[in-house]
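Internal ticket - ligand job 426, glycine:
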Amino acid sequence: MRILVIGSGAREHALLRGLSQDPATTDLHVAPGNAGLGALATIHPDIKADDADSVTALARELNVDLVVIGPEIPLVAGVADALREAGIAVFGPGKEAARIEGSKAFAKDVMASAGVLTAHAEAIQPGATDEAIEAALDRFGPTWVVKDDGLAAGKGVVVTPDRAAAREHVDAVLAAGNPVLFESFLDGPEVSLFCLVDGETVVPLLPAQDHKRVFNNDEGPNTGGMGAYTPLPWLPEDGVQRIVDEVCVPVAREMARRGCAYSGLLYAGIAWGEKGPAVVEFNCRFGDPETQAVLALLKTPLAGLLNSVATGTLAQQPELEWIDGYALTVVLASHNYPDTPRTGDVIRNADADNILHAGTALNDRGELVSAGGRVLNVIGVGETLEAARDQAYATIADIELDGSHYRTDIALPAVEGRISIPLPRG
Ligand code: GLY
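stdout (structure tokens):
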């Protein structure tokens, strides 16, 4: 199978690694890619991921059998539709279905029709009066959940007990010309559950947990994700099945009923509170960085699996197989991430097999340098979460990148038994 992966981060590195291990894969390409992917795939750096014409032309020129789209921006822009119209199999939803991530109002409407538990939300439009904004702040919070109602790579969300900080974010989002979404705060531990969805067929992967705040103990601003681990030792035995039955299957059915059947990866971001699993958000693609941990444990050949979704045959796939044990990933971020990350710093000691590249490039001297906020992901796999942590942290400690930082507590609350599901209210 000749495969083209669209994207440039550590998620795409993990996808390429998984695809390369499937004996069915004969040829791998990536566009636009990053400096760490050359050993796995031919890199096409001049292609813009959201330029449907260029992506389709490249897929045709390479005569690929399958295109796998990693990030949300090309999916929301309709790149998968252009490929399908050209007769090319593609893993990823079309533009209409990708609104489950691209439009929070659409996602709320689907959930209301499907009877799925989620936060109450209200939108405030640019140009709203000061009184309207203050009244919304009165109705919500504390804690305030204030979202940029557009694609913001996880960084458009502020969750804060501080009214002034909530107001500051409201003003910044409105000033950028985007609507603001206020949401009621959902309590309880978070679960990222990725499901392969082919119409009404829903196949869950292992559940993971992301660490979104930049500093240890969940302090500091939200980021795209600073680390993740899988599976979740604190999740009830029927936890995944409940999320599938109560959230993912009803949503897949509702999307099919509306004429925008889902095909690709549906990411359910869940907060498990005393009323059970409630949806914080949906994404229309593999999560980053959770995918890097989840795919590290997948034994089922990845190319065949993604191709079965793309060709409408997921229901015929055998049950997924997994490595026993745990995996985690720790993100190495550049100086000043997530505010204004510094790029161009030389990276040393980043050759270990358990390192994935997120934001890297080569400079004029051919040295590996940072090229984004999240620079590298280090993976650890072990029979226990402690063993997985030991492996990842031993590797990351050796990497040299001036000004870089990483969290040292990825998966630690789970290891120390500090996470529990709230009991249902009687
Ligand atoms: N890890 C959060 C996301 O992928 O959106």
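Auto-summary: The chain has four domains: 2-95, 120-183, 189-316, 326-415. The mean pLDDT is 96.
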